[in-house]
Amino acid sequence: GRVVHFYGLGVGLAANAYRPNEYRYEASLLARYEEEFSTYTMRRFMEDYVCPPDKMDTSSEERDAAAIQQLQNDFSIISVKVLLVSLLNAFRDLTLMGICAFDFNHLNNVLVSRDHQSVRLIDIDGDSKGSIQFPSEYIQGSNVHPATGGRTPQRPPHVMPHKPSLDIDLNTVLPRLVQTLLLGKGRGPAHVTNITSEIWRASPEKAKEIIRQVIQENFFPNVSVEQVSTNVDAAVGNPQKVSKHIAKVAEWFYAMLKKQSPWDNWTNDIYDAMRCIDHLPIT
Q: Helices in 29-103 by DSSP H: which ranges?
């Protein structure tokens, strides 16, 4: 892997799993330690985020019940958007370093800041593909192979080089991450699976009603379901504003989940994903 910031070179003692009795000295980059991130991975953050109140482990210092409860109470729809935008920006920044690929099939290589507003990526050289190359399999650029000098097929005229250079799978983890952030706060992972399945099976109007109810319960607990359904939310101090906001979020979420226009291709690449998340309503 690579690091963006480092202090210099260090020497470490390394062992091979297949040769447990053999040790070697190896040079390594000394990464800059950031206390705000340390070892708080996105996986641990999501575990805290969905942890039901009755299952919080108060006996563990690492999983302090009060801190988890505070996280869930403070995490708003704006917080969801800020975190997702930071994640997608981190993917985009990899291309600035010339990284060819990133393994986003799990959440252990994403670190979350202690204020839950930004992320950092680790183990960033996915599948050991190295740096971005040109010509490449996607963009030939020339019909002469740089290594062999042989002729390579030209890209068909109708194929445009719109795909980002970063090779990353956004179909496996990212949709589930968005679903969990909006539907699963303090409810457990099983709830996200069940409610998502229920939304998929329901008619469009019924599905959006389910989404509105869950969004209201997760992010606007002071607004009753009746107030949302009747566009009355005087208890919040601004009639109709919250209910309209919830309705817009439900419309966006339903189209994103079902991959309907304009979000039918939102997991194709990081730019399509950015456009989709940019349109997550926050007001």
A: 42-50, 65-74, 77-96
